[in-house]
Amino acid sequence: MADNPANSRPRVLSGMRPTGKLHLGNYVGALQNWVKLQDTHECFFFVADWHALTTDYDDTSRLADNTKEVVLDYLGAGLDPKKCTIFVQSHVKQHAELHVLFSMITPLGWLERVPSYKEQQQQMPNKDLHMYGFLGYPLLQAADILIYRPGFVPVGEDQAAHVELTREVARRFNNFYDLKGKPIFPEPETLLTPSPKLLGTDKRKMSKSYGNTILLSDEAAQVEQKINGSTTDRPKLTDTGFPDRCPVGNLHQIFSDPLEKAAILEGCTTASITCQDCKRRAIRSIEPHLGPIRERRRQLAGDPELLQEIVRGGAQKAAKAAEATMKKVRESVGLLPRASVKDVAARQDMHLPLRVPASIGKAVGNEERWKIRTEPWLERVNKNYPLTPDRDTRRLFITQRRRKVGLYAECQGSDGRWHFELKDRPLNVLVLLAEDRDRYLHDYILPQSFLQQYWKHFEREIHQGGSTVLIVLKRDPNGASLALKDSDLPIQQYEGGYSALL
Ligand code: SF4
């Protein structure tokens, strides 16, 4: 189902918004599971910085730092860039491109009825969330997911509605567009992750907005302080309690071993332990988990270049996978592929590739060949920049502004290069027409600034009555270069630059 021919493991995609450092709730709700998945699945984990803007658009002063912190949290928690791809969403532009295309086909009603659209507006009454970005964020999420064509999306139960929207968008896209009858997007399955509920230190759900979190980056002393300060369930020592309703009991359930868990349950429900003792034991249980995370985080935070390299490498890998999908998407939608721009431009008069007439084969003598080769070029250029032949001097033309244009044309030599022999004389513009083996004519228009800089660097032949300048042109995949006495000079930037004739 997943589009990963080079990798037989099922592909998985997930991400988190960088609205601050990650906390234990994020760890037990997702990260811990991701760390396991990286061994069994081909995983793409990203920091959703564009998503952070959907609610925090008015203050982005911490966005870059938060993004970095979340990457550190990912790595600290045990995500390994050798096993999975870790990247920052905004580094892979294809996500935005697919979002735009999805936005063309997604009915507004689909977005308006996503439960979190209304819920979050109610939760943040002081924030103006009447923005397209906020309404469209589940669609951006659909693009984030579908661009990797994953088989599964690991989510907690509360996010299942988003994956359902993603599936609907995939279906709708596939209904509108396909590639030779084949659908573009698989409909990813929801991989419901076991996400135990974790209460914050004040007994509400652990969340940054409540300020009741224990961060993955907290020092041991901070963790201790936060646990000791947690609101518990037993106002009096003699009261019995309910560990599943207590933040400290929650921590035991997740981080303590079975024996300790049983002892806490027994002690709390029979009032045979104090909350203080229970907290001390929770701190002891949690430290073996948080300690190594903190240490890995610290090491990576001290090596910004390594961090940069991890994020750069991740973006490269992600972009490769995303681009593979986007090629299919663009083709299925019917967008013009970039590689064909030349072909279309070729239908326009000015950009039609020049072809030397077949009569060149029967031409006798250099002069006749030169005339046949320059004819198509002159015909085209004269439409915009009339050139008047200088009757007294062969291969010299004058523009309307009295600029002297040297015009030379050659056929490709047996060494694959073009050898031009020029009269050594002052020119404002030099035009080299290079006919290739398919009779196409490539024009290189070298302006005065170029000639002033390089004219003296070409080889020369001195003979009676003056000297001849020898110019050797070589075409390569990136353009063309001229052989100077001591080096090769790339000239592709001058190709087709008719402005030099003005
Ligand atoms: S004994 Fe532990 S689990 Fe029970 S209420 Fe106190 S702190 Fe919470």
Task: Give the SSE layout.
Elements: E1 11-16, H1 24-40, E2 42-47, H2 49-56, H3 63-77, E3 84-88, H4 94-105, H5 108-112, H6 115-123, H7 132-135, H8 137-146, E4 152-155, H9 160-176, E5 189-192, H10 220-228, H11 247-255, H12 258-269, H13 275-301, H14 304-333, H15 341-345, E6 354-355, H16 366-384, E7 388-389, E8 396-398, E9 404-411, E10 418-423, E11 429-435, E12 440-446, H17 448-454, E13 459-463, E14 466-476, E15 479-483, E16 488-490
The structure holds iron/sulfur cluster.
Explained architecture:
It is a single chain. By secondary structure, the chain is an alpha/beta fold. It folds into 3 domains: 11-197 and 303-333, HUPs (Rossmann fold), CATH 3.40.50; 217-295, Tyrosyl-Transfer RNA Synthetase; 349-501, Trna Endonuclease, Chain: A, domain 1, CATH 3.40.1350. It is built from 17 helices and 16 strands. The chain has helices spanning 24-40, 49-56, 63-77, 94-105, 108-112, 115-123, 132-135, 137-146, 160-176, 220-228, 247-255, 258-269, 275-301, 304-333, 341-345, 366-384, 448-454; strands at 11-16, 42-47, 84-88, 152-155, 189-192, 354-355, 388-389, 396-398, 404-411, 418-423, 429-435, 440-446, 459-463, 466-476, 479-483, 488-490. The protein has a 6-stranded mixed sheet. Strands 10, 13, 14, 15 and 16 form a 5-stranded antiparallel sheet that branches. Strands 1-2-3 form a 3-stranded parallel sheet. Strand 13 and strand 14 form a beta hairpin. Helix 4 runs parallel beside helix 14 and helix 11 packs across helix 13 (275-301). The structure holds iron/sulfur cluster (SF4). Iron/sulfur cluster is lined by residues 232-234, 241, 243, 246, 248-249, 264, 268, 273, 275, 278-279.
